[in-house]
Specification:
The protein is of the alpha+beta class. It contains 21 helices and 11 strands. The protein is elongated and about 90 Å long. Bound molecules: adenosine-5'-triphosphate (ATP) and magnesium ion.
Length: 395
């Protein structure tokens, strides 16, 4: 048992010593079998939340309604969740209420995919009632039970399936895929925030190309914000070398292909926070400029480092070639100034040199000076800029 699990063993032992069952479950067990890196372990137990709280001295109620208690052990927090079933999904999303049960099998049965429905006890014994190991070996994403039923219980599972295609490089098992094709429209009931969380994970995965193809083939894309009538753009996107792009670079290329100038309404539809919208917007604008006139110092300066690098990666992707990100970073690093505040002169200097009164001309002249400094036409000193402005008859 690897060290990540080792740390949690005392928690399992203590639950067992108190007369309850306790197991490792969920993504960590799957990732252990796949030899993928593990970021957190989930523990499932037959003890109710109140019983868990009675056993451990340090606990935090993180999701007591869903049966989850955070147990603090030697400075590390472990999520301990009571075995539960979920019943009466009346609206195609999350259950109306959860019911705590004493059976591990029932808890595993309510989980989404066979690979996520395995448990491991503290001796390292596997409990795998739905043949998750076999599906993992075959690289298959298969629902626990009838796919059509499981997706109508919670439609988000269809998007989870697509993001696991990207994260794990697995394929959709045939009936699972068919059910996704037939029930894609149930995604209408799912909150945009939850869709965004899954799409972000999909775009962080290493097999994005295949995952995007499955969004298209199953028709799920038709129920994603702003993509319903963008099949051609999405197909174009999926045909590119997207697997090496970062998540944000993906959104930039996708926005460029789908909406060009209309980035803001598109990303607002996805409930993007303002900061992310600004970055994507700026990068998309930079793509247009890069394609029109190539990389230059002034363009990079105006875009800022992140947008310049992301737009460089995006343009290369759109043109089916490898990006020279090192060159882009070198160009940025070689800029004489990185921000306008670093310019050696200010509006006050211009007033002093000209005896003119305040006005919009100040901003214009400052920008010309800025551009000249960035393009290395003049050194960034007060003296050099003044001389340059006089030579150009700008003062
Ligand atoms: P990740 O590595 O991204 O955390 P994960 O498999 O751990 O992947 P989580 O969203 O953390 O995914 O969920 C933990 C576990 O809870 C899953 O492995 C699965 O067993 C179960 N689960 C999560 N979401 C659902 C759902 N919508 N329907 C059924 N079971 C779910
Ligand atoms: Mg997880």
């Amino acid at each position: 048992i690897p060290s990540f699990f080792q740390q949690a063993l005392p928690v399992l032992s203590k639950l067992e010593d108190s007369g309850y069952e306790a197991y490792f479950v969920g993504g960590a067990v799957r990732d252990l079998f796949l030899s993928r890196s593990i970021h957190d372990v989930d523990i499932a137990t037959s003890a109710t939340p109140l019983e868990v709280k009675a056993i451990f001295t340090h606990t935090v109620d993180v999701g007591i309604d869903h049966g989850t208690i955070l147990v603090l052990h030697k400075g590390t927090g472990f999520e301990v969740t009571t075995f539960r079933t979920e019943s009466a999904y009346s609206d195609f999303r999350r259950p109306d209420h959860v019911e705590f049960v004493r059976s591990l099998y029932d808890d595993l049965k309510r989980r989404d995919f066979t690979m996520n429905a395995m448990a491991m006890d503290k001796e390292g014994q596997w409990i795998d009632p739905f043949n998750g190991k076999e599906d993992i070996q075959n690289g298959l994403i298969r629902t626990v039970g009838l796919a059509s039923e499981r997706f109508s219980e919670d439609a988000l599972r269809m998007l989870r399936a697509a993001r696991f295609v990207s994260q794990l490089s697995f394929r959709l098992e045939e009936q699972t895929k068919t059910a996704m094709q037939q029930q894609a429209q149930l995604l209408e009931h799912i909150a945009v925030e939850r869709k965004l969380a899954e799409l972000d994970k999909l775009l962080e995965g290493s097999n994005k190309k295949q995952a995007l193809t499955s969004l298209i083939e199953t028709g799920l894309y038709r129920f994603l914000p702003g993509l319903a009538d963008r099949k051609t753009a999405l197909e174009h996107f999926a045909s590119l070398q997207v697997d090496t792009l970062t998540k944000e670079q993906c959104w930039i290329v996708l926005s460029w292909l789908c909406v060009k100038e209309e980035v803001k309404p598109f990303l607002k539809g996805w409930r993007f926070p303002q900061k992310r919208i600004q970055h994507v917007e700026r990068s998309v604008k930079t793509i247009g400029q890069l394609q029109a006139s190539g990389a230059d110092d002034w363009l990079f300066f105006q875009a800022g480092r992140e947008a310049a690098v992301d737009a460089t990666a995006a343009v290369a992707c759109l043109e089916n070639r490898d990006p020279d990100l090192e060159q882009a970073a070198d160009r940025w690093n070689a800029l004489p100034i990185k921000h306008r505040q670093e310019l050696a002169i200010s509006g006050g200097d211009l007033l002093q040199w000209t005896n003119r009164s305040r006005g919009p001309w100040i901003k214009e002249i400052l920008q010309q000076a800025e551009q000249a400094v960035v393009r290395k036409d003049v050194l960034n000193t007060r003296h050099d800029i003044e001389r340059w402005l006089r030579e150009c008859n700008l003062l």
